[in-house]
Design goal:
The complex is a heterodimer of chains A (463) and B (161). Chain A is built from 16 helices and 12 strands. Chain A folds into 3 domains: 38-238, NADH-ubiquinone oxidoreductase 51kDa subunit (Rossmann fold, 3-Layer(aba) Sandwich), CATH 3.40.50.11540; 245-332, Ubiquitin-like (UB roll); 337-451, Up-down Bundle (de novo design (two linked rop proteins)), CATH 1.20.1440. By secondary structure, chain A is an alpha/beta fold. Chain B has 161 residues and is α+β, with helices and mostly antiparallel strands. In chain B, 40% of the residues lie in helices and 11% in strands. Chain B is built from 7 helices and 4 strands. In chain B, strand 3 (138-140) and strand 4 (143-145) form a beta hairpin. Chain B starts with 13 loop residues before the first helix and ends with a helix. The chains are: A alpha/beta (463), B alpha+beta (161). Bound molecules: flavin mononucleotide (FMN) and iron/sulfur cluster. Iron/sulfur cluster binds at residues 181, 199, 352-356, 359-360, 403-405, 407-408 of chain A.
Chain lengths: 463, 161
């Protein structure tokens, strides 16, 4: 995984990259190397402060969760009931939202920045134990994190006397085993307890009753890494680049049909146009842009007419979408929107944990109907049925707001958004019983992709 | 209650398992890590191993099965010597994942089902594996390979002896 360099944009002249600067491809920073560049200074700063003071700094920085929902981190921490111990910190390293691939380079290349953030956060929330829940497919991340944790124990940075302070912080690296739903915070906790990863109804929120029924804070990897940098460099440094209430840097993952896909560390002040055409070098083969999924597969789609929207939480909300987990998928004009939706609907049907009828059955019906339209077997009335199931916004339709967790909503949103953006394409598939997108070779049957016309001349892999 | 178990896949691991259990406030939390130990050793999780794991953790075989059957990475059937997990979700799909899957199947000799005729390879299509910026991508065992091309696939498969 290469972390991509940024072009010389005037808008970025004063911007300082900290997460992954100058890190060579596939190289892990050792403890020794990290200590040479100021590693674990944040822990010393945190140890010299009262827990509430740290939380205040995080509140002041405006840091909002990087896992998807964007909840203010300092505020989340202050929900912990006073005096209730033990309490746990859990790091969400499940990173399974399609389009998102930022926590992996953070863990694999600079594991000690995460441990540093964990110790600072544990001091702030007065926890002595943190769990890092890493998705099963990230074998290397888990190994690198475990090695780094062992290094930190051996150096007296973790354990019962953190850097000689007398404070205790233990870190356990825990691996999942393949389930998108375990990224949902309550499912993550049930999975960590050794059960099927079933989400639980909130309230009670994990801050009150979480892991082993104890107060628990769950934060994304990048959120916790940011905590360390904020303590080191100050809340004002973090707020230097701000759009409305979106402060600080974020790792943006760009995939799909741009010339330079990659993971970019950026402030939330650029427009989508600047990101696609300046940062990512434009569209591959100079094709036309068809649509963007800007924040992981669950968020509404964005059309080229909104390219001047700011890539920030508020900027994307203003065009009806969301920054989500900052996984941006860019589609050129060769992509059939019906086919793209079928792919995502298959994903959600597969990942629904099956506890709630609206989500389990609804995601299956959405997939079946989208796939039959895609195959050229759509029937009159199918689009209306899709609308009725997926709804048109929060708490509408048959799924949204009617299930235990937000996966149900996430299955419905792409459908209603695709219909809003590309109604004509859907109608044309039904009327003509076919698809005009010639480059597409795949048709789907039920939940399987069936190749009908592949000739042995791969048209891919020539970048 | 721990009964003596007939299978003994984990006979050499008991110390390691006890150390693992001690990391968690509840023994049950060690269930996934112990299942990983089984899969690392055998390449899959057979039913008699579920009984053994249950005895060690202190839950029934049925409870272990309930967990194994939820997580897609736990294999309930034997796999090939090299297990190929190819991503097929949108970011990879629009960058040629399905063409890659066909190419891999042909080159690996996977003609029916999921295991190659010589037992060397097995294949599975995976949902997003977090390699979106280097699509198309696949896992070979524990190793991630991104930016797949016909040439890189040839090289990867040839290195799987
Ligand atoms: C279906 C679903 C999947 C999720 N997957 C992830 C994930 O992979 N990683 C993550 O950090 N948050 C994920 N979240 C969000 C978490 O529930 C939670 O909000 C987040 O980890 C909180 O951390 P933050 O405040 O630091 O962002 C998911 C949420 C839902 C509903
Ligand atoms: S909404 Fe879906 S994924 Fe979430 S708990 Fe219900 S069935 Fe499971």
């Amino acid at each position: 995984m290469t972390v991509s360099t940024l072009p010389d944009l005037p808008a970025l002249a004063e911007f300082e990259r900290v997460f992954l600067p100058n890190i060579e491809e596939d190289k892990t920073e050792t403890l020794e190397e990290y200590l040479k560049v100021g590693g674990y200074e944040a822990v010393k700063i945190a140890l010299a402060k009262k827990p509430e003071e740290i939380t205040e700094i995080i509140k002041d920085s405006g840091l909002r969760g990087r896992g998807g929902a964007g909840f203010p981190t300092g505020m989340k921490w202050s929900f912990l009931p006073k005096g209730a111990h033990p309490r746990y910190l859990t790091i969400n390293a499940d990173e399974s939202e399609p389009g998102t691939c930022k926590d992996r380079p953070l863990m694999e290349q600079r594991p000690h920045t995460l441990i540093e953030g964990i110790i600072c956060s544990c001091i702030a929330i007065e926890s002595e134990k943190a769990f890092i829940y890493i998705r099963g497919e990230y074998y290397k991340s888990a190994k690198v994190m475990q090695d780094a944790v062992d290094e930190a124990y051996a150096a007296g940075i973790l354990g019962d006397n953190v850097m000689g302070s007398g404070k205790r912080v233990d870190v356990v690296v825990h691996r999942g085993a393949g389930a998108y739903i375990c990224g949902e915070e309550t499912a993550l906790l049930t999975s960590l307890e050794g059960y099927r990863g079933y989400p639980k109804l909130k309230p009670p929120f994990p801050a009150i009753k979480g892991l082993y029924d104890k107060p628990t804070i769950i934060n994304n990897v990048e959120t916790i890494v940011s905590v360390g940098w904020i303590l080191k460099k100050g809340a004002d440094w973090f707020k230097k680049f701000t759009h409305e209430r979106s402060t600080g840097q974020r790792l943006l993952c760009v995939s799909g049909h741009v010339k330079k896909p990659g993971v970019y560390e950026l402030p939330m002040t650029l427009t989508l146009r600047e990101i696609i055409y300046d940062v990512c070098g434009g569209m591959r083969n100079d094709h036309d842009l068809k649509f963007i999924i800007p924040g992981g597969s669950s968020v509404p789609w964005v059309l080229p007419e909104h390219l001047d929207a700011t890539w920030s939480m508020e900027g994307l909300a203003a065009v009806g979408s969301s920054l989500g987990s900052a996984g941006m998928m860019v589609m050129d004009h060769t992509v059939c929107p019906v086919w793209a939706l079928a792919n995502l609907s298959a994903f959600y049907r597969h990942e629904s944990c099956g506890q709630c009828t609206p989500c389990r059955e609804g995601s299956a019906w959405l997939q079946k109907i989208v796939m039959r339209i895609e195959r050229g077997e759509g029937e009159e009335g199918d689009l209306e049925t899709l609308r009725a199931i997926a709804g048109t916004g929060p708490n509408t339709g048959m799924i949204c707001g009617k299930s235990i967790c937000a996966l149900g909503d996430a299955a419905a949103w792409p459908v209603s958004s695709a219909l809003n953006c590309f109604w004509d394409d859907f109608e044309e598939h039904i009327k003509t019983k076919g698809c005009k997108y010639k480059n597409k070779r795949y048709w789907m049957q039920d939940d399987r992709f069936v190749n009908e016309t592949y000739e042995h001349k791969p048209s891919w892999g020539h970048h | 209650m721990r009964e003596s178990n007939a299978v003994g896949y984990l006979d050499d691991k008991h110390e390691e398992i006890e150390a693992l259990c001690a990391k968690y406030p509840s023994r049950r939390s060690a269930l996934l890590p112990v299942l990983w130990m089984v899969q690392n050793k055998l390449g899959w999780v057979p039913q008699d191993a579920m009984k053994e794991v249950g005895d060690i953790i202190g839950v029934t075989a049925a409870e272990v099965y309930e967990v194994v059957s939820f997580y897609t990475m736990f294999q309930q059937k034997p796999t090939g010597k090299y297990h190929l997990g190819v991503c097929h979700t949108l970011a990879c799909a629009i960058c040629g994942a399905f063409e890659a899957i066909d190419y891999i199947k042909e080159k690996a000799g996977i003609n029916h089902g999921r295991i190659s005729d010589d037992g060397r390879f097995s294949i599975e299509e995976l949902e997003c594996i977090g390699a979106c910026a280097e699509a198309p991508a696949m896992l070979v065992g524990e190793t991630l390979h991104g930016n797949l091309t016909p040439a890189s696939i040839d090289k990867i498969l040839a290195s799987c002896k």
